[in-house]
Design goal:
CATH class of the largest domain: Mainly Alpha
Shape: elongated
CATH topology of the largest domain: Fumarate Reductase Iron-sulfur Protein, Chain B, domain 2
Number of helices: 9
Number of strands: 7
Helix content: 25-40%
Structural class: alpha+beta
CATH superfamily of the largest domain: Alpha-helical ferredoxin
Strand content: 5-15%
Number of domains: 2
Order of helices and strands: HEEHEEEEEHHHHHHH
Distance between the termini: 82 Å
Radius of gyration: 22 Å
Length: 263
């Protein structure tokens, strides 16, 4: 009897309310599905795999959702689960969310990111190329490879700057900050990219130009303004801190002022 009870506790029966939408201009809707025998050791994406296998066997169209590494690195598995980016747990991506976080009989709502800058491609997949364009606007360094370049490892970086740079560089560009912000702001993402390079000697050459170009592109993409509610930091799977937004604001203000003085 004990073994039977323990085994029963290791599987779940769930009701899924999943957003279905053919494309950005189509009218979307929640579709109800029920899945049984879901292992509590499986990940949320593995649970969706089971759902899609059932749909395919029934001759129905599977639910479209993004995934790649399934190791919490790529950020592609972005989903809004029960009203929270990446689900109920903190410091993880959707692929790292395990079904032991839910109870047998639970109803789970699954939606795509909601932002004008992230149009729906299909079902749970959104177009996050706006973040790529923000990065392309300045999130890089230019290096003269004429043969006289200095080995980057030989440039001293103090411990505090190195720690701050690593903290900012941990951003995986998933867009949870945008999805959870009431204004759909991309400030935390942009700030992480600006702050990362601003703390390193290699990032100094384009420092002023970088922050101005990236902020300008961020605004052009249609992201909202930051009102510093802090929801982005709470839901960021990598724990990117609000202090990087403050750093970007300082970088931007200094860049604008010095540019005016030079003209």
């Amino acid at each position: 009897m004990r073994k039977t009870t323990m085994a029963a506790r290791k599987s779940l029966s769930l009701t899924l309310k999943i957003w279905r939408q053919k494309h950005a201009k189509a009218r979307g809707r929640f579709e109800t599905h029920r899945v049984k025998g879901i292992s509590t050791a499986s990940s949320f994406l593995e649970m969706l795999d089971v759902l899609n296998e059932n749909l395919i066997e029934a001759g129905r169209e599977p639910v479209a959702f993004d995934h790649d590494c399934r190791e919490g690195i790529c950020g592609i598995c972005s989903l809004y689960i029960n009203g929270r980016a990446h689900g109920p747990s903190r410091g993880i991506t959707t692929c790292q969310l395990h079904m032991r976080s839910f109870r047998d009989g639970d109803t789970i709502y699954v939606e795509p990111w909601r932002s004008r800058a992230f149009p729906v491609i299909k079902d749970l997949i959104v177009d996050r190329s706006a973040l790529d364009r923000v990065l392309q606007a300045g999130g890089f360094i230019s290096v003269n490879t004429s043969g006289n370049t200095q080995d980057a490892d030989s440039i001293p970086v103090n411990k505090q700057d190195a720690d701050q740079a690593f903290d900012a560089a941990s951003c995986i560009g998933c867009g949870a900050c945008v999805a959870t912000c009431k204004n759909s702001s991309a400030m935390l993402f942009t700030a992480a990219k600006v702050s990362h390079l601003a703390h390193l000697p290699q990032g100094q050459i384009e420092r002023k130009r970088r922050v101005q170009h990236m902020v300008r592109q961020m605004d052009a993409e249609g992201f909202g303004n930051c009102s510093v509610t802090g929801a982005c930091e709470v839901e960021c799977p990598k724990g990117i801190a609000l202090k990087h937004i403050a750093r970007m604001n300082r970088e931007y203000g200094h860049a604008v002022l010095t540019s005016r003085e030079q003209t």
